[in-house]
Every structure is written in C-alpha cells, then in structure tokens.
C-alpha cells in the first residue's frame, strides 16, 4: 500500500500535459481600413479596425497536447468584416479559409487574409 501511494504521488507530480498555443490573425490586404466584428462562443464580442497591410491577433487558443487546424471552430461563433458600406460574413466552421502554419507540435498560427476581391 505504501508503494502504491508513492507511485500515485510520483505520477501526479511528474506527468504533465503540454500546453499548446494557436494564434489566430486577420490580415488586411485591402486598399483601405476594414472593421471586424467577432462574436465568440461564450457570447463575448470584440471589434477591431485594421489598417492595410497590417494584421491583428483576434484569438489565442490554449489547449492541452497538440494544436489542430480546425481549432477556430471551437472558439468563434461569427465573424463579420466591413469595408466601407460593404460587408462579408465569414463562416468560422470553414477552417479552410485560414492559412494554417504549424510552428511545432505545440504551436501554430492561422491567418485569414482579407482582400479587396472578397467584397
């Protein structure tokens, strides 16, 4: 029994899951400012104005173990992008709109490029 308790304590102290970080950006490649309205899954909202040709971090996901390409679908409910009087809705379930780049097993970056032709 004494060894079982020691084993459990040892496993608790030395076994750890790695944190994985996934940064999500929107990059403005238009000829003028764009406005971004985001509703997250927890119903909080954010608005950003992005000047060309810069990008803004819209979400940093922290998960356990590895990052995945479709992770955006777990955190964001809706994305609306405005350029002047024109508006587009981005379906966050369509993770293929994002350019995914794995930096390592525990770190990744996804960028949504917004271009004038999108409007």
Could you walk me through the main structural features you see in this protein, from its secondary elements to its overall organization?
With 119 residues, the protein is mainly beta. It contains 1 helix and 8 strands; from the N terminus they run αββββββββ. The chain has a 4-stranded mixed sheet with strand order 4-1-8-7, with no helix packed on it. The relative contact order is 0.26. The model has no long low-confidence stretch (mean pLDDT 84).
Question: How does the SSE layout of this entry go?
Answer:
Elements: H1 2-14, E1 19-29, E2 34-40, E3 45-50, E4 55-64, E5 76-83, E6 86-90, E7 99-104, E8 107-115
Parallel strand pairs: 1-8
Antiparallel strand pairs: 1-4, 2-3, 2-5, 5-6, 7-8
Which terms summarize this structure?
elongated; 52% strand; 4-stranded antiparallel beta sheet; 11% helix; 119 residues; mainly beta; 8 strands
Radius of gyration: 19 Å
Tally the helices: 1
| Helicity range | 10-25%
What best-fitting shape do the alpha-carbon axes yield?
A: elongated
Low-confidence stretches: none
Percent strand equals over 45%
Task: Give the beta-strand count.
Answer: 8
Spatial ordering of strands, largest sheet: 4-1-8-7
The topology string of helices and strands comes to HEEEEEEEE
Mean pLDDT: 84
End-to-end span in angstroms?
68 Å
Q: How would you sum up the major sheet? A: 4 strands, mixed
Classification by helices and strands: mainly beta
């Amino acid at each position: 029994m004494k060894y079982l308790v020691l084993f459990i304590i040892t496993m608790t102290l030395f076994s750890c899951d790695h944190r994985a970080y996934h940064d999500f950006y929107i990059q403005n490649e238009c000829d003028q400012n764009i406005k971004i309205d985001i509703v997250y899954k927890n119903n909080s909202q954010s608005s950003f104005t992005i000047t060309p040709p810069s990008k803004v971090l819209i979400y940093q996901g922290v998960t356990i173990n590895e990052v995945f390409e479709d992770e955006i679908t777990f955190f964001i409910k809706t994305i609306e992008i405005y350029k002047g009087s024109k508006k587009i809705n981005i379906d966050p379930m369509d993770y293929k709109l994002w350019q995914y780049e794995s930096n390592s097993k525990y770190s990744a970056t996804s960028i949504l490029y917004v271009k004038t032709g999108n409007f």
